[in-house]
Design a protein that fits this description.
Blueprint lengths: L2 E10 L2 E5 L8 E7 L8 E3 L5 E2 L14 E4 L3 E5 L2 E11 L5 E12 L8 E7 L4 E3 L6 E10 L2 E18 L7 E6 L9 E3 L3 E3 L14
Parallel strand pairs: 2-6, 3-5
Antiparallel strand pairs: 1-2, 1-15, 3-14, 4-13, 6-13, 7-13, 7-16, 8-12, 8-14, 8-15, 9-10, 9-11, 9-13
């Protein structure tokens, strides 16, 4: 089954690549959310390489994506079963708060993710505590029990957001979404079910020999 590592390989601004192999990893902590004292139930949508300060949930599915995308279009099926999501958040201040993380998967024939079709929004059932110490980190892993997922010459997109569960006590509360780590040590990734490419049948051409 494929594992897509979340890298910091830029496709366009705010859209990075997820790859099955990452030979040139380098921990990236530039994707940040300044949540301050935001109330419980506030959402913050991560934007790759950007420090966000404004609250907001996932934008309209039809818009271009700010997140991760497969390197190439996929033409095939992921079997029904468990998809596994792994993330790590790192505290940027000495003030802690708690969140739930969610991922939105979509598919689109467009390389920027515009005009996409929603696959799922999967929120982790786990409340994770961002440490009250700069540099402290917390990881989370959860699964989505998926039906069969078909992509027909489409890219797979993944976007992430957090939902405040316990508010911070300082206007400076901020965390980073880690990615592009050494996969032998730690990885931020999406592990899918088995993928079967669609076989394109090429019609046979018969030639009649003329005597």
């Amino acid at each position: 089954m494929p594992k897509y590592l979340l890298t910091n390989m830029v496709i366009v601004i705010e859209l990075w690549m997820m790859r099955e192999v990452n030979p040139a990893y380098s921990e990236d902590l530039t994707t940040k959310a300044t949540v301050g004292k935001s109330a419980v139930c506030t959402y913050f949508k991560f934007r790759c390489g950007v420090t966000i300060t404004a609250a907001g949930d996932f934008p309209d599915i039809a818009l271009a994506k700010s997140g991760w995308r497969t390197e190439a279009k996929l033409n095939g099926k992921f079997s029904a079963g468990a998809w596994i999501f792994r993330v790590r958040l790192e505290s940027d201040t000495k003030y802690g708060f708690s969140v739930k993380v969610a991922v939105r998967l979509s598919r689109s024939v467009n390389d920027d993710g515009s005009g996409a079709v929603l696959i799922v929004v999967s929120e982790s059932p786990n409340v994770i505590a961002i440490p009250a110490a700069a540099g402290g980190s917390v990881s989370d892993t959860w699964t989505w029990t998926a039906p069969e997922v078909t992509l027909t010459q489409e890219y797979l997109f993944a976007e992430f957001r957090i939902h405040i569960e316990v508010a911070g006590t300082s206007t400076t509360c901020r965390c980073s979404f880690a990615c592009d780590e050494d996969p032998a040590v730690a990885d931020e990734s999406i592990t899918t079910t088995a993928y079967t490419p669609t076989i394109v049948e090429i019609p046979l051409i018969y030639y009649k020999r003329v005597r």
